[in-house]
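Task card 7
Instruction: Convert sequence to C-alpha cells.
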Amino acid sequence: MDDSELFAAAQRLPSARRPLLGLTILVIEDSRFACEALRLLCLRSGARIRRADSLKSARRHLQVYRPSVVIADVGLPDGSGLDLIKEMNAARPRVRIILAISGDENVQEETLAAGADGFLAKPITSLAAFQNAILSRLPDDRQPSGPRQITDETVEPDPIAFLDDMAHAADVLNDTQEEKSLDYVAQFVGGVARSAGDTPLAKAAENLARARSEGRPVASDAAVIAGLVQERLERRIAI
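Output:
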C-alpha cells in the first residue's frame, strides 16, 4: 500500500506554502529531540509523517506501507541504518526517496554507497534545506505549481524531548556497560548533544567514541557522560 497515493487521493496537492502536501514521510529515528524537529519540518511543509524508532519497527512498517520518502538515522538501537538503506535500495518497488541522517558527517559517503539518495547532517532545523532535499529529487509532476516561497525559517524542538533522550541514555548506561552498548551511547548522546547545541555533552560523547575506537579503557569517559546526563535530568526538577 502506497501511503502517498492514499494521501494524495484526498485532493491534497502541493502548493507554494505547503510544497510537500500529498507526501508521506517515514522518519526512522531513535532520538525524540531529532524526531520532534523533523515532525515540525513536516508539519510546516504539509507532509504526513510516520515514525519508527528502530530497525525492527521500521521493517514492520515497510512490510505494510510504502511511504514516498524515508529519512533514516544511521545509528539505531538495534543495528545500523546503513543495513536498512541497502535493503530499501534493493527492494522493488523502491521507495521514491531515501535520505540518510546522522550527527556524524563522516558517514556521508557510506550512506550514499549504501544507496541513499542524499544525506542530511544533524541538527536538521532549516525549513528550506529540508524541503529542498526532498523537492530536488521529486519528478516534475509532483512539484508544486507556480513559484515556491523560500524562507529562512527554522524549527526549535520542545526541550522536554531532549530530556526524554537523556532519560533514555541514562537507562542504557544503568542497564549495561557492555562495549556494544557504550558504542551506541556515544553515537546517540553525541547526535542529541549536537542537535541541541550542548557542547560539553557532545565533547564527552566524542571522547568516549575515540577511546572505544583506540581500544583504551573507557570507564572514566563513560562516567563523565553518565554524570552530565544526570545533571541535565535534574534540571527537570528545577523547571
